[in-house]
Amino acid sequence: MTTNGSQQNGPVGDVPEDANEHCPGTQSERAGKAEACAGCPNQQICATAPKGPDPDLVDIAERMQTVKHKILVLSGKGGVGKSTFASQLAFALAGKDKQVGLLDIDICGPSIPKMLGLEGQEIHQSNLGWSPVYVEDNLGVMSIGFMLPDPDEAVIWRGPRKNGLIKQFLKDVYWGELDYLIVDAPPGTSDEHISIAQYLKATSVDGAIVVTTPQDVSIIDVRKEINFCQKVGIPVLGVVENMSGLLQPLSSLKFKSITINGDEEDVTAAVLQEIQRSSNLLQSVYTYSEVFYASSGGAEKMAKDMKVPFLGRVPLDPGLSRAAEEGRSCFSDGSCKLSASYLNSIIGKIQCTVEASADSSSKV
Ligand code: ADP
């Protein structure tokens, strides 16, 4: 993303990285001819290239006409649970009988096939376009992960090739009628973000959900992500604080006695028996540990400072990690009860916002 001041005037992605200050944008009638273009390395190309909107944007807009709501899931850093959130959001909405598509454009690290239990699946082509891979009749998934012959192979692509694939995903995948398209974007504010923002703006996008962990190293990057959304005109639906403390039922804890020599003994049974004898705490009490130190107040404070909605917290939950590893919904059985209840509350808020504004002009 360029920091060029003219970015606010021209369409997103319309100003090359190496452009001069006050570049009018490559699509402007003044491209290559404006005063600011003098001496720019792109001047000649800009002056002679055909102008006007990218014809692919028209195809994308047409393809997306059958999609009611489009939600982008973003994060400033990798490893904060963005794909986990995107996949559980898709499972949750599908569980509410919505028709859902999940599009994974995290091209260099596609984890959605695994998180949806679809490893080893392939994409098929029909006369209508590329067919998503279906978890259920109402939950389809598209990812570059389905196209890689070897999951251990690194995808080393430059910007234009990545952008080409994103464009194809939006233009050529036949989703049919969808209530929701969830887009799992790569972390950071790279080329792919600029592309997806530009392409989704050609249709209409409800907004972005930004996932972060509580500590400053993650929050600092999230501020950039929110600024990015504001610059490109994508509404921020809200911020989710993931891995927000470790919450465990007292009954699931293990206890060890450790001597100064380092000898260990498992005393779980004895300790739990003792707790049970003195009260009924095993049924109702959870232990909470603040794993990541939120030195500047965490995501809620940051959201308040940046005037964007705070959607809630999701604790670290071994059950959720296991559901993601096994490609399962965390709502279908009781194995991640805790995180499921937090996720449900957040997803309810997202649905309220998006569905309430369906007919309003808040989409871009
Ligand atoms: P990202 O998409 O931000 O790179 P992932 O969604 O791949 O991050 O999550 C990284 C790892 O953390 C995964 O193994 C995932 O299962 C785990 N994880 C994410 N959120 C939680 C959580 N709330 N509790 C337990 N494990 C989690």
Automatic annotation (TrEMBL):
<keyword id="KW-0067">ATP-binding</keyword>
<dbReference type="GO" id="GO:0046872">
    <property type="term" value="F:metal ion binding"/>
</dbReference>
<dbReference type="Pfam" id="PF10609">
    <property type="entry name" value="ParA"/>
</dbReference>
<dbReference type="GO" id="GO:0016226">
    <property type="term" value="P:iron-sulfur cluster assembly"/>
</dbReference>
<keyword id="KW-0547">Nucleotide-binding</keyword>
<feature type="binding site">
    <location>
        <position position="40"/>
    </location>
    <ligand>
        <name>[4Fe-4S] cluster</name>
    </ligand>
</feature>
<keyword id="KW-0150">Chloroplast</keyword>
<dbReference type="GO" id="GO:0005829">
    <property type="term" value="C:cytosol"/>
</dbReference>
<dbReference type="InterPro" id="IPR000808">
    <property type="entry name" value="Mrp-like_CS"/>
</dbReference>
<dbReference type="GO" id="GO:0140663">
    <property type="term" value="F:ATP-dependent FeS chaperone activity"/>
</dbReference>
<keyword id="KW-0934">Plastid</keyword>
<feature type="binding site">
    <location>
        <begin position="76"/>
        <end position="83"/>
    </location>
    <ligand>
        <name>ATP</name>
    </ligand>
</feature>
<feature type="region of interest" description="Disordered">
    <location>
        <begin position="1"/>
        <end position="31"/>
    </location>
</feature>
<keyword id="KW-0004">4Fe-4S</keyword>
<keyword id="KW-0408">Iron</keyword>
<feature type="binding site">
    <location>
        <position position="46"/>
    </location>
    <ligand>
        <name>[4Fe-4S] cluster</name>
    </ligand>
</feature>
<protein>
    <recommendedName>
        <fullName>Cytosolic Fe-S cluster assembly factor NBP35</fullName>
    </recommendedName>
</protein>
<feature type="binding site">
    <location>
        <position position="23"/>
    </location>
    <ligand>
        <name>[4Fe-4S] cluster</name>
    </ligand>
</feature>
<dbReference type="InterPro" id="IPR028601">
    <property type="entry name" value="NUBP1/Nbp35"/>
</dbReference>
<keyword id="KW-0963">Cytoplasm</keyword>
<dbReference type="InterPro" id="IPR027417">
    <property type="entry name" value="P-loop_NTPase"/>
</dbReference>
<dbReference type="GO" id="GO:0051539">
    <property type="term" value="F:4 iron, 4 sulfur cluster binding"/>
</dbReference>
<keyword id="KW-0479">Metal-binding</keyword>
<comment type="subunit">
    <text>Homodimer and homotetramer. Predominantly homodimeric.</text>
</comment>
<comment type="function">
    <text>Component of the cytosolic iron-sulfur (Fe-S) protein assembly (CIA) machinery. Required for maturation of extramitochondrial Fe-S proteins. Functions as Fe-S scaffold, mediating the de novo assembly of an Fe-S cluster and its transfer to target apoproteins. Essential for embryo development.</text>
</comment>
<dbReference type="InterPro" id="IPR033756">
    <property type="entry name" value="YlxH/NBP35"/>
</dbReference>
<dbReference type="InterPro" id="IPR019591">
    <property type="entry name" value="Mrp/NBP35_ATP-bd"/>
</dbReference>
<comment type="similarity">
    <text>Belongs to the Mrp/NBP35 ATP-binding proteins family. NUBP1/NBP35 subfamily.</text>
</comment>
<dbReference type="GO" id="GO:0005524">
    <property type="term" value="F:ATP binding"/>
</dbReference>
<feature type="compositionally biased region" description="Polar residues">
    <location>
        <begin position="1"/>
        <end position="10"/>
    </location>
</feature>
<feature type="binding site">
    <location>
        <position position="37"/>
    </location>
    <ligand>
        <name>[4Fe-4S] cluster</name>
    </ligand>
</feature>
<keyword id="KW-0411">Iron-sulfur</keyword>
